[in-house]
Amino acid sequence: MFIVMITPECAPAAKVGGLADVVHGLSKELAIRGNAVEIIMPKYDCMRYDRIWGLTKSYADLWVPFYSRWVHCDVYFGWMDGLKCFFIEPHLDRNFFNRGVFYGHQDDAERFAFFCRAAMEFMFKSNKRPDIIHCHDWQTALAPVLLYEMYQHLGMSHPRVCFTLHNVGHQGISGEYVLREVGLNPGALMTYDRLLDDYRRGAINLMKGGIVYSNFVTTVSPRYAQEISYTHLGMGMQRILGMHCQKLGGVLNGIDYGVWNPEIDAHIAKSYGIASLHDKYANKEALRRHLWLRDGMKPILSFVGRLDPQKGVDLILHTVAYCLERGCQFVLLGSSPHGHINTAFWNLKRRFNDHPDCHLELGYNEELAHLIYAGSDMILVPSEYEPCGLTQIIGLKYGTVPIVRNTGGLADTVFDANYAPKPYHERNGYVFNDYNLQGLESALERAIGMWNIYPQYFRELMVNGMRCDYSWNHPGQHYLNIYNYIKA
């Protein structure tokens, strides 16, 4: 099967969050299974070009309609961790993808609408006719609209579209001018059953267009598929998802065990597995040395990830002092796109800067993330909502017991040590239900107590987590089943 991924991110060269890891991991799994997989994404100036091999200009004269003119683009080809990737570079005075960041500008809707038109034009002009076009999040949601409103009438009648919702908290809200810019007729599309937003008068919702026009819609965990369909976590998409419920499914993300695996991880101090779990503590010592934490018989609790309101930043802020008061060490690695959140954590960093049991690293460092996963005893994921979450899945593989809230993919992967309706050998962490300080503290108290008082039971939780299989093997097959279903 010939599959094209249209995506705003792909690890390791262009990564903001979990979406990049998903595109990378799923593409590798599909390729391993014998499918031809190609990735199309923008050519950002801020990519890690050292992670792209053999980058060369492969298509020099791609002219893309935009407003009343044609924009000249170059398309580059390169290998990224064995994956075939095409990078589209527009020569436009507005520098759509030369801004030093991936997202966060007022014209993001225009930038990615143009990218969708360019990706479709590239496939059309280069005579690529994939069986499946797999689009990821609102940034690529106009691709199925363009396919069925425009390109199928030009001869691209073969491809079918799978559209994955990684986070419905970001939907691509804009004005109808974005449609005109890429050659679409707003008159036909500005209805409540197509792209017109249900709650913002006169606005278009790009994610909604992707849902309506794609042949199948997936999201990144079964629980999240239910939450966005029937609860406030749908963030206004509940009606349109209900209309298209027959083509909606939740497929739990996997992680790449070729990257996240303590048995082969080159970024940690000492490799280990279930049979050599004692070697995990060499990484705990290395982490303490690296971050200037003091030695002692106490657990390390960590947080790794974006400091976004969705991730439960108020609960994370509370956790720092709570853990230190109870004899724990706390490590954080993350940064925020929101100024007020960054300020709050910089203030916290200054407050605990000289504390021998606390280190806040405000930024992101992939190599340090590996060492934190390996060297910590517990990892915190207190999200207000979480479509899937990769942090807890990585933590499980590294024998680092997750403490999570009962939502989305967290609920699908972490089962409480005390209360889960599962046999003990399947319990692997601590879960709290209510998004408040009392709920958080109840889980923290149980986890810290287990580590201190019943270390043998805590070790069993670690081993239970390491036995879990959250590789791309199962989701890869689920996606192939979906592709075959919509192709038939």
- Please tell me the CATH architecture of the largest domain by its name: 3-Layer(aba) Sandwich
The largest pleated sheet is described as: 9 strands, mixed
CATH topology type of the largest domain: Rossmann fold
General form = globular
Q: Which whole number gives the mean pLDDT? A: 96
| Helix amount | 25-40%
What's the name of the CATH homologous superfamily of the largest domain? Glycogen Phosphorylase B
The rounded Rg comes to: 23 Å
**Low-confidence region ranges:** none
Structural summary, described in words:
The chain is α/β, with parallel strands linked by helices. It has two domains: 2-254 and 473-487, Rossmann fold; 274-467, Glycogen Phosphorylase B (Rossmann fold), CATH 3.40.50. Helix content is 37%, strand content 20%. It is built from 17 helices and 17 strands. The strands form three sheets. Strands 3-4-5-2-1-6-7-10-11 form a nine-stranded mixed sheet, sandwiched between helices. Helix 1 (18-32) links the parallel strand 1 and strand 2. Helix 3 (142-149) crosses helix 6 and helix 10 packs parallel to helix 15 (437-453). The mean pLDDT is 96.
